[in-house]
Amino acid sequence: EVQLLESGGGFVQPGGSLRLSCAASGFTFSSYAMTWVRQAPGKGLEWVSSTDSSGVITYYADSVRGRFTISRDNSKGTLFLQMNSLRAEDTAIYFCAQLLNSASVTWGPGTLVTVSS
Amino acid sequence: QPVLTQSSSASASLGSSVKLTCTLSSGHSRNIIAWHQQQPGKAPRYLMRLEGSGSYNKGSGVPDRFSGSSSGADRYLTISDLQSEDEGDYYCETWDTDTRVFGGGTKLTVL
Question: Residue A64's closest CA among A47, A78, A80?
């Protein structure tokens, strides 16, 4: 069974940093592009960042470019999101998803990030 | 970059059918989209990948009651024989070379 499990969320002050992880199982992780999507409380889905299967090609939403870094360790089947200079507006549930033919086909349960003083 | 427009809400009676719409912005009418369902308090669930031709591929375990269709820049999700568990938010998603976009979501209420 294909599964994704995010971790690393928590409470952080503005300007702080967090590193999210997404552990994959049930599929050949190194063969798939991956993406991070977030959802602020009571709001819709917002794309954050994506990477190709090797981790060489990365893309970011304008709202996080220069502050967030996506990476992956294919040997460990894990996707990461390093988040620096966090702002209150980054408060959200962060989901990782597996991309297949460009669509987000498998989603993790999400991890909550709260940025507040 | 593409923009996806969805109605904010929809409602239909138990056992009836409902058709949700996702409209692609000008210049992106040929884009492929994906439909996702998000039940209250849960993560999104992939429903299908839908092409401009109307051809679609559903995710594993998605009931036959869910189908897709297209017309011009509009992409549709039709749910037949509505069940109470179909209540929730429905999002469309598309992508370009270096970006991905979600629609604002439609909140479906089953009466």
Answer: A47
Predicted confidence at residue A93, as pLDDT, reads 98
From B5's Cα to the closest Cα of chain A, the distance in A is 12
- Answer yes or no: do A45 and B98 touch at CB < 8 A: no
Q: Which of B45, B49, B102 sits opposite A44 (nearest CB)?
A: B102
Residue A35, chain B, CB below 8 Å: the answer is yes
CA B102-B106-B108 angle, 5° bins: 145
The beta-strand segments (E) located in chain A are: 3-7, 10-12, 18-25, 34-39, 45-51, 58-60, 68-73, 78-83, 92-100, 103-107, 111-115
Mark yes or no for CB contact A107/B59 under 8 Å: no
Residue-wise pLDDT tens digits, A6-56: 999 999 999 999 999 999 999 999 999 999 999 999 999 999 999 999 999
pLDDT grade for A101, boundaries at 50, 70 and 90: confident
Residues of chain B short of pLDDT 70, as ranges, are none
